[in-house]
Design brief:
Helix content: 40-55%
CATH superfamily: Glutaredoxin
Strand order of the largest sheet: 2-1-5-6
Structural class: alpha+beta
CATH class: Alpha Beta
Largest sheet: 4 strands, mixed
Radius of gyration: 17 Å
CATH architecture: 3-Layer(aba) Sandwich
Distance between the termini: 13 Å
Order of helices and strands: EHEEHHEHHHHHEEH
Length: 214
Amino acid sequence: MSATVTIDFVSDVVCPWCALGATALEQAIANLAGEIAVALTYKPFELNPDMPAEGEPAVQHLMRKYGRSAADVAAGKRMQIERGQALGFAFDLEKRTHFYNTFDAHRLLTWAAQEGRQVALKKILLRAYFRDGDNPNDHPTLVRLAREAGLDTARATEVLASDQFAHDVRQAQAFYRQHGINSVPALIFNGTHLVSGSQSVEYYEQVLKQLAAA
C-alpha cells in the first residue's frame, strides 16, 4: 500500500455541494481501498455564522443571500437532486425547509473526531438534514444522531450543554478564512494541495493516485 494521503475536508453540514463532494470522495476512497490509505478529517466552516437559532426559510434565505429568483432557486434544487441521484445521495429538499446555525454541530463533530467517529457522524448529519429535514441546531436531534454514529449520548449531551470545543471551532474557522478559504467544500490534500468545489469520483481518485505516487 502507498503512503497515507491526508485530507482536511473543510465544509458545513447545511451545504449541498459539501454533501455531494463528501459522497463522491467516500466512493473514491472505497474504490482505492487496499491501494491507497486515506486519513480524512472534517474541518468546520459556518456558511451562516450569524444565523439565529430559529433559522431562516430556505428559499427566502437563498434569494436574500445570493440575489437569486425563485426560479433560480428551483433550478438549483433540481441540479443538486440530479447530482445526488447519480452518486446515490438522496436529497429531499421539500423537507429541508430552513437553513440553521451549525456551530453546535461543528462542536459535536470536533469531539467526535477525538472519539474516532467523526466521519460516521458527518455522514449521518448530512443525511439527516438533506433527506430528513432535521434541524442541526437542535440539541436533542444532535444527541440522537450522535447515538446513531456510535457515540455516547451522555457525553454528547454534556458537550452540547457546555461551551466545550467552541474555541477549537472558532480557531479552525479563522485559520481557513485567513488562508483564503471563503467557500466550501474545500479539500486540502497532504496539507498543501487544495481542491475547491464538489468534484467527481473520478477526479478525486486521480488526485489520490497522483499524491500517493509522488
